[in-house]
Automatic annotation (TrEMBL), chains A, B:
InterPro entries: GMPP_N (IPR049577), ManC/GMP-like_b-helix (IPR054566), Mannose-6P_isomerase_type2 (IPR051161), NTP_transferase_dom (IPR005835), Nucleotide-diphossugar_trans (IPR029044). Pfam families: ManC_GMP_beta-helix, NTP_transferase. The keyword Transferase applies. Residues 11-293 form the Nucleotidyl transferase domain. Keywords: Nucleotidyltransferase, Transferase. It comes from Labedella endophytica. SUPFAM superfamilies: Guanosine diphospho-D-mannose pyrophosphorylase/mannose-6-phosphate isomerase linker domain, Nucleotide-diphospho-sugar transferases. This is Mannose-1-phosphate guanylyltransferase. One of its GO terms (biological process) is GDP-mannose biosynthetic process.
Length: 371, 371
């Protein structure tokens, strides 16, 4: 008999531009292709490296857009063709993760998959992996399992998971039942969550037996599940795959896996959560990027950019630069400056969430050349 | 007998980088070579055009650095060689204006000169010229004469002139005696000045008979005056000018004309001032530039740049751009963004005066390539 980790397969959905990180993140240079920690590694590569020790680098599947194929292969040289799933167009996370589940399930009926975003930052890889191992055990026991991050502050930028009683799974002693998912709270609610000790940050990580995930998906989105199974049935046949994709993929419903799987499973008591005691951030906006890169001290000025030439006086916040220009800041607090060859953003931490609206405005005003 | 305006000769000292306008103003692109009002004209050209109607375009002398010769000639095509005085190195305003006075005085002993900075902004040219005409009349009566701008607000960025009694000059009915020059005041002092009605902004304009100016200069700086007279004596001899410049110019004392001429003359009761009722600004920093270009409304965002592509949301201040980059501002108030191909400045109106310190820091840190 194999262990749950031996049957484990990582799935990295690498989609999403990260509009709140414009002008750094773009359609042709999405967030996961950037080094956002100054480590010298893209987020995608860091995710891959973090997952490789779990069940081997040959058991990591990347689901990404056709347009990103060469960039992804450049980041992950040697990745096998059967581990790259290309979407002809974005159809949201249920389709992306569900397709991986369906393909892998056909190849290995007892596979346990774990889905991890390509563009999050995690500090302690060892802690992360031991948590995933425990989640895989809970998944093996039949639960759709998520990892909830133990909050360290009353963050308002994340969704929360309300956790309940211990599920009593022998090989997964920390697995708790999930009562519900809750949306990003306001500050006072976030404070209450933190005090209660019952809430974890929703990090969007899902670990599940592939068949269980597809069953759960079939309950809420039967058409989507059927489409994915149909695709998977021909996926490994080069002659049939293309026509099937062209016919089926564009018709699949666009729905986030949180809504199609996680929330319904939670309602039915079939969702488990393992509390994760490691540093995690979804780097959702420049305020978050500033925090990650400044050691958490609000007085700091974080600087990101290989060739950064920054001269700052009485300034805090973050400078992200892709150019070699001298950037001088004087007396600007909590500032966000993002300097790229064709676009410049100047805002503040407080306004970081509003960056997406700029992207929308640029689309509307015909300046899509910089998106 | 000729009128005072017929004997008038304009002098434009075009020196000074304008460090507080870095990274727009540079050693090789000083302030006077920029269009800072969005008019499509450099400040130098606007100054020239404003002065030309006074005594004719052929009676305007520009004193500038050798390095700027071709840029100046490009701005003022057709300017005669005898109207360009080239400094081998900057030696401050007493030397620059004094040399022009000495040269012109040799060519026309009864010349009246008027010196006007190349990099100030004046709105109402007609009002300006009638004020200069009256100043020329006061100069003809033997006074070193300045034009003081009637203050419209308690500005703290300008020096002030304390004016006294009317001098009773028939052809210059508004000429007042200058009691003293005062440095840039603090806000409460500036308010008191404004209320008193006795104070005018020092716009650094000097109108004087050339011989009177040189006499006044000789009192405080006899060595400087003698050097200038020696230079002027050979200036129009091409064979002798070069060696004289090489020998004399580098040894001349560096002193502002305010200290060498204006203040001593004021103390001795020999300085007159004509109140000027026209919009004037020395564009001393980006706060001033913002004011000039925003119609004075602090809620406005001023945008300067031929190819500006600015998208602003809830932002005020000024954007100056020399590039075609999309510049997006979100929720930044009183911001100053100066975008050039090799340097970017982000500061606030309040900190505008501190820009010079950046220039100093860049010099010290070996990043003089962007100065």
């Amino acid at each position: 008999m194999t262990t749950s980790l031996e049957r484990f397969y990582s799935v990295i959905p690498a989609g999403g531009i990260g509009s709140r990180l414009w002008p750094l993140s773009r359609a042709d240079a999405p967030k996961f292709l950037h080094d956002l920690t100054g480590s010298g590694t893209t987020l995608l590569r860091a995710t891959y490296d973090r997952l490789a020790p779990l069940a081997g680098a040959d058991r990591i599947m990347v689901v990404t857009g056709r347009a990103h194929r060469s960039a992804v292969e450049a980041q992950l040289p040697g990745i096998a063709d059967h581990n790259i799933v290309l979407e002809s167009e974005p159809r949201e996370s249920s389709a992306a993760i569900g397709l991986a589940a369906a393909i892998l399930s056909r190849r290995e009926p007892d596979v346990i998959i774990g889905s991890f975003a390509a563009d999050h930052v995690i500090r302690s890889s060892r802690q992360f992996r031991s948590t995933v191992a425990e989640a895989a055990a809970a998944a093996d026991a039949g639960y759709v399992t998520t990892i909830g991050i133990q909050p360290t502050e009353p963050a308002i930028g994340f969704g929360y998971i309300n956790s309940g009683e211990n599920l009593g799974i022998e090989s997964s002693p920390n697995a708790l039942r999930v009562r519900s998912f809750v949306e990003k709270p306001d500050l006072s609610t976030a404070r209450r969550y933190l005090r209660s000790g019952e809430y974890l940050w929703n990090a969007g990580m899902f670990i599940s037996r592939a068949d269980v995930l597809l069953e759960e998906l079939g309950r809420s989105e039967p058409g989507l599940r059927d489409g994915l199974l149909e695709l998977a049935a021909v996926w490994d046949d080069p002659a049939l795959r293309g026509p099937a994709v062209d016919r089926i993929w564009p018709e699949l419903p666009k729905v986030a896996i949180d809504y199609s799987v996680a929330e319904p499973a939670a309602k039915a008591g079939r969702l488990a959560v393992i509390p994760g005691h490691f540093d995690w951030d979804d780097v959702g906006d420049f305020a978050s990027l500033a925090k990650i890169n400044s050691g958490g001290r609000p007085s700091d000025l974080a600087i990101l950019g290989e060739n950064a030439r920054v001269l700052a006086d009485s300034s805090s916040g973050i400078v992200v630069t892709q150019t070699e220009r001298v950037i001088s800041l004087i007396g600007v607090k909590d500032i966000v400056v993002v300097d790229t060859p064709d676009a410049l953003l100047v805002t503040t931490r407080e306004n970081a969430q509003r960056v997406k609206s700029v992207v929308d405005a640029l689309k509307l005003s015909g300046r899509g050349d910089v998106l």
